[in-house]
Design brief:
This protein is an alpha+beta fold. It contains 9 helices and 13 strands. The longest helix has 12 residues.
C-alpha cells in the first residue's frame, strides 16, 4: 500500500463494499508512502496513527468521485461536493495568503489546525483539495470561514457579515494611512468621466516616493483624472472578525510624461494591470490630504 498526502483511507466491508469509515491522510511516516499514516477521520475529526488492515484501501487524490463504488456514503457524497466546488490549488493559495496576512508561520498554522506542517506545505504548493474536516480546521486556525477559503464569496461584495456588537470607529494618523497604503494594491479613483458624469473605477496602483501612481489607456475613464483634483480610496474588510479600515487620499493628478520617469515606474512596478491589454499611460496623484478610519471592537480600541 502506498499513499500521498491528501489521499483518503477508506475502510469498508469486504463482503458488501459499504464504507465503515474514511479519513484524509494528513501525515506520512515513510518517504515511499507506505504505512502507517496519520489520518483525520471524517466522522469524528480525530487524528490517529493508523496501520491499515486488509479491509482498508487508499483512494488517491486524483481519483474522480464518480469512480467511487456505489453505497459509499460519506466518501462519495462529500468527495463529489468537495471536488466540484473549487479548483484544485485555489484553496491552497487562499490559505497561504490568509496565513501570511495574519503573520502566521506554517508551523503555527498547522499546530492550530492539528495537521502536520508538511501537509500544510503540500496544500499550499500543490493542486489539492482537502477534506471538509481539514478545511474547517484550517478556517478555525486562520479565524476565517471555510466558504472564504473555498472562494464562495468571490461574486459577492465584502461586508455582508454582522456588525460588531460594540464597534468603535477610530481616526488613523497619516503614518498609519501610509503604512496601510503600503507599496501597491488595488484601489478606487473617483473622477469626472469624459462624458461629464462622476465615476469610480478600480485600478492597480503603486506608491512611489509618496505619490500614488497607476497605469491606464489614453482616453479611458481613469485617464480623465489627469489635470483635476481627485479622490483615491483603498480599504480592507475582515469578514470573519467584522472589522476593517479605509484610507482616503485627495490631491491633484497629472500624467507622467518624462521618458526616464516612465521607464523608472515600469521598472519598479510590482505587477501588471489586472485588466490586461496595453496600458502605458501613467497617472500620478500627489496627496494633499490623507485620512483614514478603522472599525474595531470597543475593548480592542481601548487597548490600542
Amino acid at each position: 500500500m502506498h499513499a500521498h498526502l491528501g489521499d483518503r483511507l477508506v475502510v469498508e466491508s469486504p463482503s458488501t463494499g459499504v464504507v465503515r469509515r474514511d479519513g484524509e491522510i494528513i501525515g506520512l511516516h515513510h518517504k515511499d508512502g507506505t504505512p502507517p499514516y496519520d489520518v483525520r477521520w471524517s466522522d469524528t475529526d480525530d487524528v490517529t496513527l493508523v496501520f491499515p488492515g486488509p479491509d482498508a484501501h487508499v483512494q488517491h487524490l486524483e481519483t474522480e468521485a464518480d469512480d467511487t463504488p456505489s453505497g459509499t456514503g460519506t466518501v462519495g457524497d462529500d468527495t463529489a461536493a468537495s471536488r466540484t466546488s473549487a479548483n484544485p490549488g485555489d484553496i491552497g493559495r487562499r490559505v497561504a495568503e490568509e496565513r501570511r496576512r495574519r503573520g502566521l508561520s506554517r508551523e503555527e498554522t498547522a499546530r492550530r489546525a492539528r495537521i502536520s506542517p508538511q501537509y500544510l506545505a503540500y496544500l499550499e504548493e500543490q493542486p489539492s483539495d482537502p477534506s471538509t474536516a481539514t478545511l474547517f480546521a484550517l478556517a478555525g486556525a486562520l479565524d476565517t470561514t471555510a466558504g472564504s477559503l473555498r472562494g464562495g464569496g468571490v461574486d459577492r461584495p465584502p461586508g455582508q457579515g454582522h456588525a460588531l456588537l460594540h464597534p468603535r470607529l477610530n481616526d488613523l494618523d497619516q503614518e498609519e494611512c501610509r503604512r496601510l497604503l503600503s507599496t501597491h494594491g488595488v484601489g478606487r479613483v473617483a473622477v469626472t468621466a469624459p462624458d461629464g458624469r462622476p465615476a469610480v473605477v478600480p485600478v492597480n496602483y503603486e506608491v512611489v516616493d509618496d505619490a500614488i501612481v497607476f497605469r491606464t489607456r489614453p482616453g479611458s475613464v481613469p485617464a480623465a483624472a489627469a489635470g483635476d483634483e481627485v479622490a483615491f480610496e483603498v480599504d480592507h474588510v475582515d469578514e470573519a472578525m467584522s472589522q476593517g479600515w479605509s484610507v482616503l487620499a485627495v490631491g491633484p493628478a497629472t500624467t507622467v510624461t518624462e521618458p526616464d520617469a516612465v521607464r523608472d515606474l515600469a521598472r519598479r512596478a510590482h505587477t501588471e494591470p489586472w485588466a490586461g491589454g496595453t496600458r502605458d499611460t501613467w497617472v500620478s496623484i500627489r496627496p494633499t490630504r490623507l485620512t483614514g478610519k478603522r472599525i474595531t471592537p470597543a475593548d480592542q480600541s481601548a487597548r490600542r
